[in-house]
Amino acid sequence: MRARIPGELHPDQVGLDRHGLRRPDRTRTPLSRGASMRTGIIGTGRIGTVLARILVAAGHDVVLANSRGSQTLGPLVAELGAAASAAHPAEAAAQAELLVLMVPFERVRGLLPPRVVQDKVLVDATNAFGGPGAPADLGGRGSSDLVAEWYPDAQVVKSLNTMHFETLAVAGTAPGERLAHFTAGDDAKSKEIVAGIITDLGFSPVDTGPLHSGGILQQPGGPLFNRPLTEAQALAWISH
Question: What is this structure's pTM?
Answer without folding.
Answer: 0.85
